[in-house]
Design goal:
By secondary structure, the chain is of the alpha/beta class. Helices cover about 35% and strands about 20% of the residues. It folds into three domains: about 5-85, Arc Repressor Mutant, subunit A; about 90-160 and about 270-295, Periplasmic binding protein-like II (D-Maltodextrin-Binding Protein, domain 2); about 165-265, Periplasmic binding protein-like II (D-Maltodextrin-Binding Protein, domain 2, 3-Layer(aba) Sandwich). It is built from eleven helices and 14 strands. It has a five-stranded mixed sheet, covered by helices on one side. α1 (about 10-15) crosses α3. The longest helix is centred in the first third of the chain and has 15 residues, at about 30-45. The protein is elongated and about 75 Å long. The two termini are about 40 Å apart. The mean pLDDT is about 85.
Length: about 300
């Protein structure tokens, strides 16, 4: 391993400032110079030291180990550099932020088989529907619908195309009738979803003759819990609306009936996303490979 030791003060500036612009100002160089020299250092190690997007910079586990090592006596630095460069085994703490509606990722088997294949990786899965910058929040990756992922992220498909559908129990439909057009939903008891109490319930989106439109159903029951929506629909509380894979097992058994399907076209599904591919941490590379080799 050949490391240009002149790059280490630059790394320290980035690690302490957590911002390329601030590090550049501190060193009296341009931001592009900081970015290029950081890339040289990472290429020498063969591992990402700092995850960065247009919004944030955060040290990876390898970067944090190097930062801590550079604060130690000089006699420890050589061994620390070798450890950073030679660590190719997937290990460490892997944090992933996952939307609550990513049924396949959260159903169990995918992460269970990943944990079995990579016993030295501890997977920390946070289920959240909040929209935030995963890098500044300290996550290695996220899982969301493709249409809401930031453009500067790398995205790997977790599922095929998805489709949202409206469903209700046979008992509800026998009592209240079956809507033949989405606009009739305003006359039905609906079960809606919203991510937080201060956010309006999501409007239900449809399409007719290739023209999209939405319906504000004014749900009688609103929740931020997908499971509560499902359970409420199963006992006849009303019509609800979510991704088809959430309801598929209950449609197969006849416990729920799909509605208005001709007005609900497919859209891009769920993706595992992360900031960059070059010099990816082995733990994240392992998860990406696992997702890609275990298709939906």
């Amino acid at each position: 391993m050949k490391i240009d030791l002149n790059l280490l003060p630059l790394f320290l500036a980035v690690a302490e400032e957590r911002n390329f612009r601030a590090a550049a100002d501190r060193l009296g160089v341009s931001r592009s110079a900081v970015s290029q020299r950081m890339q040289r250092l990472e290429d020498a190690f063969g591992v990402t030291l700092a995850t960065r997007t247009t919004r944030a910079v955060r040290l990876t586990e390898a970067g944090q180990r190097l930062f801590e090592a550079l604060s130690q006596p000089l006699s420890d630095i050589d061994s620390a550099l070798e450890q950073v460069a030679g660590d190719v085994t997937p290990r460490g703490h892997l944090r992933v932020a996952v939307t609550s509606i990513a049924e396949r990722f959260l159903s169990g088997p995918l992460i269970a088989s990943f944990a079995e294949a990579y016993p030295e990786v501890t997977a920390d899965i946070t289920v959240t529907d909040d929209e935030f910058d995963i890098v500044s929040a300290g996550f290695d990756a996220g899982v969301r619908l493709g249409e809401v992922i930031e453009q500067d992220m790398i995205a790997v498909p977790v599922t095929d195309d998805q489709r949202e559908i409206a469903v209700a129990s046979p008992e509800y439909l026998a009592k209240h009738g079956t809507p033949s057009h989405p606009r009739e939903l305003i006359h039905h008891r609906c079960i809606g979803w919203r991510p937080a109490p201060d956010v309006a319930p999501y409007r239900w989106e449809f399409e007719q003759d290739s023209v999209p439109f939405d319906v504000a159903v004014e749900p009688q029951i609103t929740t931020n819990d997908l499971r509560f929506m499902l359970r409420s629909a199963l006992v006849g509380a009303g019509i609800t609306f979510a991704t088809e894979e959430t309801f598929r097992p209950y449609i197969k058994t006849g416990q729920l009936v799909p509605l208005l399907q001709e007005y609900l076209p497919p859209f891009p599904g769920f993706f595992l996303y992360f900031p960059q591919r070059r010099n990816m941490a082995p733990k994240l590379r392992a998860l990406v490979d696992h997702v890609m080799t275990n298709p939906a």
